Amino acid sequence: MKQAPFIAVEGPIGAGKTTLASMLAEELNLPIIKEIVDENPFLAKFYENMDDWSFQLEMFFLCNRYKQLEDTVTQYIDKGNPVISDYHIYKNLIFGERTLNGTKREKYRQIYHVLTDDLPKPNIILYIKANLDTLLTRIEKRGRPFEEGMDTAYLEQLIKDYDDAMASLAIQEPSTVIITIDGNAVDFVENPEHFTEIVSYIKELMK
């Protein structure tokens, strides 16, 4: 049986993933899966010392996202109902490959594949691509204390990592539709026409 539409909104920190996913969920009357961020007890410590806290941080995210994905399968995918998420589980590898080293990285890779390889993945990805200035502006606007003073070099590298990851997903999952949104030019919050265009495209894909 063909999998029901499983839409993921992705992009680097500050791209507007949750905002767009929430707007689409409301417009299309879809259930939404939001990643747990603020509840991660290691997040503030990670930004203070990435080397010491990266493994704990990434494992917390991976386990929580795995549980959310498992629940999503039971509640929606297995029943043939569409759903939207403000992340793709693959983001765990994007961040893990950047923050972890040596044996910790290898252990993390193994755990990731054990948990996720047999679970359904999104078949539609909205990738919000944005440059450093755009991301920094949005990060400052949302005002999360633990993101203050974020290393811009880390954020710049994440931008490249996301581009590479989307290219890899296009090869690994050729049936997945990846839509790239220019986050520097497209303002789906302030410009209703931009949002309407995105909605129209998603509706066509969901038919």
From TrEMBL:
Q: Name one GO molecular function term.
A: deoxyguanosine kinase activity
Coiled-coil zones? none
Every Deoxynucleoside kinase domain range: 7-206
Mind listing the UniProt keywords for this protein, alphabetically? Kinase, Transferase
- CDD domains in UniProt: dNK
Q: What is its EC number?
A: 2.7.1.113
User: Per its UniProt record, what Gene3D superfamilies does this chain match?
Assistant: P-loop containing nucleotide triphosphate hydrolases
- Taxonomic superkingdom: Bacteria
Q: What is this protein called?
A: Deoxyguanosine kinase
Query: What is the gene called?
Result: dgk
